[in-house]
Amino acid sequence: MNAKFLFTPLLMIPLLTGCASILDSGPKTVQLNSNPEGAKVTIANPEGSQICVTNTPAKVKLSRSAGYFKGADYNVTFEMPGYYPYQAHVESDLDGWYIGNVFFGGLIGMLIIDPATGDMYTLTPHELDCNLIPTSTRPQRLCPQKALLRND
Fold this sequence. Notes:
Blueprint: H1 3-12, H2 19-23, E1 28-35, E2 40-44, E3 50-55, E4 58-62, E5 65-67, E6 70-71, E7 74-79, E8 86-94, H3 106-117, E9 121-124, E10 127-131
Parallel strand pairs: 1-10
Antiparallel strand pairs: 1-4, 2-3, 2-7, 5-6, 7-8, 8-9
């Protein structure tokens, strides 16, 4: 068999893939932490549909894409009885590997593969740390009050 027939399919692989899809593909992991631990975490998309409900500490895998050429964004709410709720946002940003298509993946990777797979995006932040604030905090006195005695 002719060697060029063996190597031709191997040479076509870079033409049929995107740079970000090759080097940084799949869902992204986001670490969720709270102080105190054990807070309920609800992750929802911008339309309000729940994606995930878990307790801290947790690692969740989130999709980077919400459609063709559309990055995914998430609203994250930390809740715990006796504490104020805390809200955070995880958003998609352009993945640096996507720019590699200019050099390696060509137009197919830049316009079709990476946008279709969602791998052209990454999620930030990769870790959310939440310090929950108690709802009933005792007022702290800066200096002790002395009783004023009056002689009437």
